[in-house]
């Protein structure tokens, strides 16, 4: 892998006596939001003016990927800088099945993994997570045991409601204390889609930013909200305001919230000392679309698949005074890069005792460089595909288990990838498919 050395521009805040303090880091991670859900990425209704303005003032990444097409392993990859097959978020009891941590699974992030907030503490950062953790709900997996100083949110998604006999409703925490449960203390109306959670998460972010600005301590804020994950929700003032239905209402509220967060940074005078990155954990869940799911733009399939629609994400970097406005990058990026990039911003080196898969994107963001690197598409413990440059090789495109594969006469990808050329079962195991993503329509609808 080729690397690009950091120039003076990207080192000015960590070297020398005149260097500024390490910047604040704000990662905005959406849930099941697709590549095609923002106006800046071509969504025709143009209902995301704040995110579109963020892109106009910063850098748009057109080739940015998750590390796995499902919520839990992708989040583990972001916070460890490592593929899920390295950090433990994959299954061993079902080949090519994604690992996840719903309420009835007892696993979580291993103690052996070093998470981004643990490392940022070495540089004096105060760390907060707002929203969905999803790396384990038992006490040993609590985010405050893995480097975060504060938490407001839930260990899992807002599924439910449950009967509170065989299965309780999912809890919401403030730091170590459970402060309520979804559908009981934190209402979600499944009939109308009304819930005030995004507004709560917004206020938490604004309050935390204000507090840290007053204390003059650098902060890491991980804003991992889940309004666009089914069952989709939005607060009352946004319901019925989108041309795209309830899902669009949720996106509009997220857009409004991001605009308020960025404006708050500017009003406090700390926008030029705050690196902000917006992306999603995986592609839109087409199984829930159109009412409860988003758009992956021109790309094939969605969440849970390793086609482009499941793995390629919207991504925007924003840092006034540092990132040239109006930038567009074709750098192959990954959520794992946010780990290495954040460490670089803090003046820290990645751990040397383990393989780190994320790369430092600062030469790309600040100097417009391109770094040669591959993108690996995993589903569970199976390497499904690899991208190098404009070329993508599919090694295994079947989207279900080996058991289902053996029972099915016609392969799913024979309809999608081979455009209707039917072949028998062993094709997916004995052949691979190579595509040029700039020219081949088989990765596009």
Topology:
Layout: H1 8-11, E1 24-30, H2 49-57, E2 59-65, H3 71-80, H4 84-87, H5 116-120, E3 126-132, E4 150-154, E5 171-174, E6 177-181, H6 197-215, E7 219-224, H7 245-267, E8 274-280, H8 308-311, E9 312-318, E10 327-329, E11 333-334, H9 337-345, H10 362-367, E12 374-379, E13 382-388, E14 391-394, H11 402-407, H12 412-416, H13 427-430, E15 433-436
Parallel strand pairs: 1-7, 1-8, 2-10, 2-11, 3-4, 3-7
Antiparallel strand pairs: 2-9, 4-5, 5-6, 8-9, 12-13, 13-14, 14-15
Regions with pLDDT < 50 over 5+ consecutive residues? 1-11, 13-19, 407-430
Helix-strand category = alpha/beta
Q: What would you report as the Rg, rounded to the nearest angstrom? A: 21 Å
Fraction of residues in helices? Answer: 10-25%
Q: What is the ordering of alpha helices and beta strands?
A: HEHEHHHEEEEHEHEHEEEHHEEEHHHE
Helix tally equals: 13
Q: Could you say which overall geometry the principal axes of the C-alpha atoms support? A: globular
Distance between the termini: 32 Å
Strand content: 15-25%
What profile does the largest beta sheet have?
Answer: 11 strands, mixed
Look at the structure and give the mean pLDDT. 87
Q: What is the strand tally?
A: 15
């Amino acid at each position: 892998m080729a690397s690009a050395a950091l120039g003076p521009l990207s080192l000015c805040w960590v070297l020398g006596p005149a260097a500024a303090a390490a910047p604040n880091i704000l990662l905005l991670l959406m849930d099941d939001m697709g590549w095609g859900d923002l106006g800046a990425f071509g969504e025709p209704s143009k209902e995301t003016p704040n995110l579109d303005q963020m892109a106009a003032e910063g850098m748009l990444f057109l080739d940015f990927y998750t590390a796995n097409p499902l919520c839990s392993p992708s989040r583990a990859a972001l916070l460890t800088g490592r593929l899920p097959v390295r950090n433990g978020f994959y299954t061993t009891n079902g080949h090519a099945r994604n690992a996840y941590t719903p309420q009835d699974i007892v696993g979580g992030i291993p103690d052996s993994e070093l998470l981004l907030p643990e490392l940022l503490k070495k540089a004096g950062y105060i760390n907060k997570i707002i929203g969905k953790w999803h790396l384990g709900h038992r006490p040993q997996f609590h985010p405050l045991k893995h480097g975060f100083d504060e938490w407001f949110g839930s260990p899992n998604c807002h599924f439910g409601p449950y009967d509170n006999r065989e299965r309780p409703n999912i809890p919401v925490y403030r730091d170590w204390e459970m402060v309520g449960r979804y559908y009981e203390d934190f209402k979600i109306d499944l009939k109308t889609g009304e819930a005030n959670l995004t507004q709560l998460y917004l206020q938490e972010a604004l309050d935390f930013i204000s507090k840290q600005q007053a204390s003059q301590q650098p902060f890491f804020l991980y804003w991992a909200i889940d309004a666009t994950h089914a069952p989709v929700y939005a607060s009352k003032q946004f319901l019925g305001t989108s041309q795209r239905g309830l899902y669009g209402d949720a996106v509009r509220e997220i857009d409004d919230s991001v605009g308020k967060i960025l404006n708050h940074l500017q009003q406090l005078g700390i926008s030029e000392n705050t690196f902000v990155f917006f992306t999603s954990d995986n592609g839109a869940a087409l199984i829930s679309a159109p009412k409860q799911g988003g758009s992956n733009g021109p790309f094939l399939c969605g969440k849970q698949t390793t086609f482009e629609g499941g793995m390629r994400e919207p991504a925007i970097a924003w840092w006034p005074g540092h990132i040239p406005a109006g930038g567009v990058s074709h750098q192959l990026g990954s959520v794992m890069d946010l780990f290495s990039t954040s460490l670089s911003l803090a003046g820290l080196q990645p751990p040397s005792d383990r393989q780190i898969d994320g790369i430092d994107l600062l030469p790309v963001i600040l100097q417009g460089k391109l770094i040669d690197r591959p993108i690996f598409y995993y589903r569970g413990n199976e390497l499904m595909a690899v991208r190098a440059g404009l070329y993508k090789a599919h090694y295994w495109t079947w989207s279900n288990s080996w058991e289902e594969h053996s029972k099915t006469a016609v392969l799913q990808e024979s309809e999608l990838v081979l455009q209707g050329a039917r072949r028998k079962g062993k094709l997916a195991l004995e052949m691979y498919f190579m595509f040029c993503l700039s020219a081949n329509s088989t990765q596009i609808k």
